[in-house]
């Protein structure tokens, strides 16, 4: 009988960082152990606490607080990258791709639409769509408009979505047209925005008004679940998300020339920081279509074709 490969050895040699059930694998795409990659996808395995502690050690030494290092809201980091290198590739989903300049312009346009539809600074705006170009555009647009982003799960039923919106006080929702029927039980104002950016260019932006937004302002609302019609909503500040991104950056530094693969199944709110991490560092985000995520051969081809250097992988025991 063949023994399973040594997961601990692979984790160490390929600089994999584990946080919860997500792996952040930092290795050249040409150096990946495909046997181990297949083992992780098909036979999730639980690592011990010592391996986790060893991976987390660099972050524990990260002493400088982001209140000192990053005095501006989180989306400013993306905007600086877009201004410095607008032609750099920013995000890809399937056959569609946007540069930093294109993504910045589209997010600006959607931010203006949100403001004209009544979204005020520091007000919650929900995003209801699967991982896609549209989702990344929507996240940035909410931040640019000064809003607080609430990621909704497209798999939830209408009643639960309505309860989450009420609990968060969200009066605006950005949704793809395919999910409009899921919002029939809410009075929230809906802004449609699909992958082709249809409707997102109705207005060309002037400067978005974000008065009152600072690093200690809330930037995202997270639904922690709850009983019946009373889900619990937790608010995170810009500085909280920046701290998490800085922690990830300390463990697995990325920058221009890196491509991050977002292909693991995870909670909707995790898509928020997983999307912002590469885009605030000048790297490229590659989102795997759901139909390809469990196909090892397609994943292998995509990783080699797109020169993936960082990836998120589910890792559940």
TrEMBL record:
GO terms for molecular function: phosphopantetheine binding. One of its GO terms (biological process) is secondary metabolite biosynthetic process. Pfam families: AMP-binding. PANTHER family: FATTY ACID SYNTHASE, NONRIBOSOMAL PEPTIDE SYNTHETASE. Signal peptide: none annotated. This is Surfactin family lipopeptide synthetase A. It comes from Paraburkholderia bannensis. Residues 78-179 form the AMP-dependent synthetase/ligase domain. One of its GO terms (cellular component) is cytoplasm. It comes from the Bacteria.
């Amino acid at each position: 009988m063949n023994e399973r490969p040594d997961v601990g050895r692979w984790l160490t040699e390929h600089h994999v960082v584990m946080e919860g059930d997500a792996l952040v694998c930092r290795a050249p795409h040409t150096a990946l152990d495909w046997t181990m990659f297949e083992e992780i996808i098909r036979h999730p395995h639980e690592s011990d606490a010592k391996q986790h502690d060893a991976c987390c050690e660099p972050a524990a030494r990260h002493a400088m607080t982001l209140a000192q290092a990053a005095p501006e809201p989180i989306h400013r980091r993306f905007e600086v990258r877009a201004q410095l290198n607008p032609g750099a590739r920013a995000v890809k989903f399937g056959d569609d791709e946007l540069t930093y300049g294109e993504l910045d312009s589209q997010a600006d346009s959607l931010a203006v639409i949100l403001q004209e539809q009544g979204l005020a600074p520091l007000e919650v705006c929900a995003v209801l769509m699967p991982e896609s170009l549209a989702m990344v555009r929507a996240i940035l647009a909410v931040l640019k408009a000064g809003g607080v982003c609430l990621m909704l799960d497209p798999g939830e039923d209408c009643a639960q979505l309505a309860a989450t919106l009420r609990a968060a006080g969200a009066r605006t929702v950005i949704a793809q047209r395919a999910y409009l029927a899921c919002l029939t039980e809410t009075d929230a104002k809906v802004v449609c925005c699909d992958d082709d950016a249809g409707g997102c260019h109705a207005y060309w932006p002037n400067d978005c008004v974000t008065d009152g937004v600072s690093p200690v302002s809330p930037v995202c609302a997270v639904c922690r679940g709850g009983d019946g019609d009373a889900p619990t909503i937790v608010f995170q500040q810009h500085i909280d998300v920046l701290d998490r991104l800085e922690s990830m950056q300390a463990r697995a530094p990325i920058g221009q020339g890196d491509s991050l693969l977002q292909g693991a199944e995870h909670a909707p709110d995790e898509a928020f920081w997983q999307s912002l991490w590469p885009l605030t560092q000048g790297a490229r985000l590659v989102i795997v279509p759901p139909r390809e995520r469990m196909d090892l051969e397609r994943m292998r081809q995509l990783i080699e074709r797109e020169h993936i250097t960082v990836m998120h992988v589910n890792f559940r025991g």
